[in-house]
Amino acid sequence: MNKRKLNFWEIWNMSFGFLGIQFGFALQGGFMSRIFQTLGAGKEDIPLLWIAAPLTGLIVQPIIGYLSDRTWSTKWGRRKPYFLIGAILSSLTLFFVPHSPALWVAAGFLWILDASINISMEPFRALVADKLPESQRSYGFVVQTLIIGIGTWVASNLPWFVSKLGVSDSAASGVVPMSVKIAFAIGAFVFLVSILYTVFTTSEYPPEDMEEFEREKLKKNQFIPDILNNIGNMPMTMKKLGVIQFFSWFAFFTMWSMANPALTEHVFKTPAPEEINYNMSLEEDKHAFDIANTAFQKSSNAVGSYMGLYGLSSMAFALLLVLYTSRKRINRKYVHMISLILGGIGFLIMKFVPSPEYLTISFILIGISWGSILSMPYAMLSSSVDPKKMGVIMGIFNMFLVIPQIVAALGGVNFISGLLGSQAINAMTVAGVSLILAGLCNFLITNKNAISYQSSDNS
């Protein structure tokens, strides 16, 4: 199919739903560990509590990709029904998660939240490849990254912003502060509205051969064989990208799960107080716990705001790429390599910052790598796979995102960082080394089409 080139605003409209997805993702990534700690989790327990996120992605994304490849509605299209279902479920869960009365409830909500976000997210990746000619793929994924950066920065600052409006950061033991509850409610609203915007402003191409499409739909019991067949026959470029993704996503999972305990403890000097260390029947100890807990909650707001900088940085980086890729080709391989190495340096210097404001440098560098992670691998992949299988391929590619996170959650983070010592900040050092390794693995990519799409019009 000859697809027409889209202008910036058409690409913006089809990607705008990612603003909401990123609100959910940033609130989850920036503040779930804080909620877990507030509800009594120790810092060594946090990675395992996060295992819900990668496990649901491992299961949900290939299924949603497979189903969306086989969906077509003249009214709703192919990918949009999944956007909408995921948005409704995610918005409801975002609203209720900070109201969790116990740690196991919050962990259960994380399962539901991540599954719901995945229902929306994978079809958005496939939509870019569905709608755009190959010469615009890098441009499309970079615009998507621009919107993701906006969402990350705004959502990560919501608890801080709500607190500045006068909403309290203080709360009783085991209760999430009202500032966090309101921030998650705002995130739920933005998630749903932004997805609806894309649903009602974007059309989709119908299947090229409707008769063949209908025959494929009528085939029974093909899901598992098709998935296994696609895994067994994945292109070599996809396998090499998988190695890069492994180290990249190990690093970022480590950040999402451990940045709050690491930075509140090491940089802000306000670790989460443990109730076991206080005699809560004594008014003096109860008051001391409340002071320590409020200090922890406020420094957690600050950590969230600093983490938001990586969204802002990725947005600026994506904007530069948008301006460049709209006119010229880029070498995706070297852009991705340099970006990942810069992010790794950002993680490594966290252990040595003399005061919190220096975290700005760390997260700006991390944002450059995040901007590249969200665009370059997908642009490289989409140039080397069958477009008819784009949904299921994107879903299978997600395995290379979730497997490293499962490894990290099941003890990888605790074991490797434990080799460096007991301080939580060592987890950030592990993340930095992992991201630098990911950057160096780009030397594996040799497919010229993946590195820089060659088109006849030199676009």
Write the layout of secondary structure elements.
Blueprint: H1 8-15, H2 17-38, H3 46-49, H4 52-69, H5 80-96, H6 103-131, H7 137-164, H8 178-201, H9 210-218, H10 223-232, H11 236-266, H12 283-325, H13 332-348, H14 359-373, H15 376-382, H16 390-397, H17 399-418, H18 426-440, H19 448-451
Any overview of this molecule?
The chain is mostly helical and about 450 residues long. It has one domain (about 10-450): MFS general substrate transporter like domains (Growth Hormone, Chain: A), CATH 1.20.1250. Helices cover about 70% and strands about 0% of the residues. The chain contains 19 helices and no strands. The chain has helices at about 10-15, 15-40, 45-50, 50-70, 80-95, 105-130, 135-165, 180-200, 210-220, 225-230, 235-265, 285-325, 330-350, 360-375, 375-380, 390-395, 400-420, 425-440, 450. α13 (about 330-350) packs antiparallel against α18 (about 425-440). The radius of gyration is 22 Å and the shape is globular. The protein starts with 7 loop residues before the first helix and ends in an 8-residue tail after the last helix.
